[in-house]
Amino acid sequence: MKIVHHYLFLFLLLLSLSCHNSKVDTSKYIPYKNKYSINWSDYKSIRPWGNTYAANTYVWYECDVKQINDSLEVLLGTFFVPDSSWYNPEKIDSLLLNHERRHFDLDEAYSRQYRKYLSEWNGKTLNSFKIYFQRGNFQQMHLALLNQYDSETNHSINASEQERWNTKIDSLLNLYKEYEKPVFRIKINGLKN
User: Fold this and answer.
1) Structural domain boundaries enclosing 159
2) Chain centre to alpha carbon of residue 94
3) CB under 8 Å to 192, separation ≥6 — which residues?
4) d(CA 8, CA 54)
5) What pLDDT is recorded for position 191?
6) How far apart are CA 136 and CA 14, in angstroms?
């Protein structure tokens, strides 16, 4: 029986008022571009001793907000982290790789949903944006969705459920396709330079 463990670094940065406390070097991370963008060769970490899971996919969300004249430039990126992701070579196959890729797709759908939420802000100050940003905490919903995905697909073992989820995930990515760019601008209402 294959068991997959999917660690997700949640929006810890979203919990802070500043949205971004310290810059993380993402140069070795793989940004989300499209589905099927990661392969087993991208998993660079070694499976921890005694761990019985088949794979660990680690995702990082980067967030940065800058005020530029009468706009906010928002970066909200989804990255696969090779040095924290690993697999057990004795337990992998193409079905499991698809399952892990779809985790990454779900993470990107989450980012797109958040980008949509943020782009709908119509406030007047950077501080009010940060408060709005915090209120849009989708973490619980996203975690529930990831757990439901693993549960219903039995971590890729239930092929018919995996196919159903593949379709569902594609639909989510398509629903939020307009928000696929990680960098976007939002006008600050009421301010003029």
Assistant:
1) 12-187
2) 22
3) 70
4) 16
5) 52
6) 9
Q: Which residues, listed in sequence order, are joined to residue 183 by a DSSP beta bridge?
A: 75
Residue 61 in contact with residue 78, Cβ under 8 Å? yes
- For 4, other C-beta atoms within 10 Å of its C-beta total 23
4: in domain: no
Within-domain flag for 6? no
Domain count, the chain: 1
List helix spans (H) across 19-138.
Answer: 94-119, 126-135
> Residues of the chain whose pLDDT is less than 70?
1-23, 190-193
Strands (E), the chain: 30-31, 55-56, 59-68, 71-80, 86-87, 183-187
In a domain? residue 5: no
Residue 154 lies in a domain: yes
CA distance 17 to 144: 24
Total count of residues recorded for the chain: 193
List CB contacts of 122: < 8 A, sequence separation 6 or more: 189
Q: Say what the pTM is.
A: 0.85
How much is the CA Rg of the chain, to the nearest whole Å? Answer: 18
